[in-house]
Amino acid sequence: MAEVLPLSESELRILESLIRHKIRFMVVGLSAAALQGAPVVTEDVDLWFDDLSDPGLSRAVQEVGAAYVPPFGLNPPMLAGPGSEPFDVVISMSGLGKFADEWKHTREIKLGKLRLKVLSLERILISKTAANRPKDKLVIPVLQNTLRTLQVKHARRRKPRTNRKPAVQRNR
Q: Is residue 39 part of a domain?
């Protein structure tokens, strides 16, 4: 059975090109939460880049027919062109440190043939709480429940299993 991926082929090509060009980025926000199992829906994929001035970033997206548009005036940086529609470029996250500080809080998630770095659910929850926007307040309980569920599953996997049956004492 073929794997159903949440992104189109052109969107996956952008991510693959970024990885191939060794551009340091992570998926953040609700898309990162969804990739970790949270039952949430979002219309965009937030990407946080280590260095927006890296010339490799423009080369990576141009290779697949898209473009990096640097910030100007009040307009934030963005990706444009085929396959770039769902991607938003994030330059900071409420309640969190700089990219380099948060990089150590990423998890690697397999998406098709790609291995993406995504911000941990714990850090996403901190950011959503700090942002304190109405839309964030709505998903905080969902993220908390998902985090608890994942922690329980992880604890069960780490618990040593003993397959030995208790010794039976025999009366003689």
A: yes
CA dihedral 72, 131, 48, 91 (to 10 degrees): 30
Residue 84, SS3 per DSSP? coil
Instruction: Read off φ and ψ for residue 77, nearest 5 degrees.
Output: -65, 155
Structural domain for 24, as ranges: 9-158
Q: How far apart are CA 172 and CA 169, in angstroms?
A: 9
SS3 content of the chain, % helix, strand, coil (to 5): 40, 20, 40
pTM to 2 decimal places? 0.86
pLDDT at 1: 42
**How many helices (DSSP H) and strands (DSSP E) are in the chain?**
6, 7
CATH code assigned at 60: 3.30.460.40
pLDDT at 2 over 50: no
d(CA 29, CA 89): 11
